[in-house]
Design goal:
two-stranded antiparallel sheet, MetI-like fold, mainly alpha, cell inner membrane, membrane, transmembrane
Length: 293
């Protein structure tokens, strides 16, 4: 194996410097500002600042609305991650069985990932809007009283499906790549031994794509916590009655709508800690069930 040798010691650092600068400016600096603002109490115009220590955190954790948002976030994140990964895995398995037009089939499934979250939310809002949505009209004709603007359960269902639909294409890409890396000889040998398609999937395919599944579990968890803000904002705005107000949307409401800057900063720090903790737990315990090699 050939070894790459840089002509100068400074060159590697110069190549890394753009990424380091971007990470420092757009992640570490905002994170440090959030940590500092979380221990301050500021008026909306920034004219008066008071150091309050952990008072913002105590106030946030004692707020019933925040605890409600935490429960909503758990339900929303689990439902979105499971639905997005299950649908993507099923589509990837179906794509492997397509003989003619496989490239077109995969391309059509990848396209939704190019849609911005806010645009995806508006698409689902228009389709299921109780006043003018096509699918809402079909549901009413079928005798189902569809009104996600007033029914909390229907609103949660709509944002979960919209968020999962946006993420399916991303998961599909990785599942297809993982399945293509499985040696065909294993599948053919199992088929010769009499194993059906379902048994081959559960005993051969699923264990061999476990590393990819674990990676997507982490990615989908982070996606559900952070990247679904645009979908929720476009579809329900956190309503009705805070039924779809997740933690990240509450940060926006308290900080940009109600101008409670200290509370919003404390919530963002708590949210960052939750995601870091969940990721650490997944790597510590879930990874034990992953088979590499």
């Amino acid at each position: 194996m050939s070894r790459v040798v840089f002509p100068a010691r400074v060159l590697p650092y110069l190549l890394l410097s753009p990424q380091i600068a971007i990470t420092a400016v757009f992640f570490y600096w905002p994170a440090s500002q959030a940590l500092w603002q979380s221990v301050l109490r500021e008026d909306p115009f920034g004219l008066k600042t008071t150091f309050v220590g952990l008072a913002n955190f105590r106030s946030v954790l004692a707020d019933p609305n925040y605890l409600q948002s935490a429960r909503v976030t758990v339900v929303f994140s689990v439902a979105t991650a499971l639905l997005a990964m299950a649908a993507a895995l099923w589509l990837a398995s179906a794509a492997e069985r397509v003989v003619r037009g496989r490239g077109l089939y995969r391309t059509l499934l990848i396209w939704p990932y190019a849609v911005a979250p806010a645009v995806a939310g508006m698409l689902w809002l228009f389709m299921f809007n109780p006043a003018m949505g096509t699918f809402a009209y079909m549901l009413r004709r079928a005798g189902y009283n569809w009104d996600p603007l007033l029914d909390p359960g229907q609103a949660m269902t709509m944002v979960v499906v919209a968020a999962a639909w946006k993420q399916i294409s991303y998961n599909f890409l990785f599942f297809v790549a993982a399945m293509q890396s499985i040696p065909r000889s294993l599948i053919e040998a199992a088929a010769i031994d009499g194993a059906g398609s379902t048994k081959r999937f559960w005993t051969i395919v699923l264990p061999l794509i476990a590393p990819t599944t674990f990676f997507l579990l982490v990615v989908n968890t982070v996606y559900a916590f952070f990247d679904t803000f645009g979908i929720i904002h476009a579809v329900t705005g956190g309503g009705p009655a805070r039924a779809t107000e997740t933690l990240v949307y509450k940060v926006y409401n308290d900080g940009f709508v109600h101008l409670s800057l200290g509370s919003s900063a404390a919530q963002s720090v708590i949210l960052m800690a939750i995601v870091i903790l969940l990721t650490a737990i997944q790597f510590r315990f879930v990874e034990r069930r992953v088979h590499y090699g």
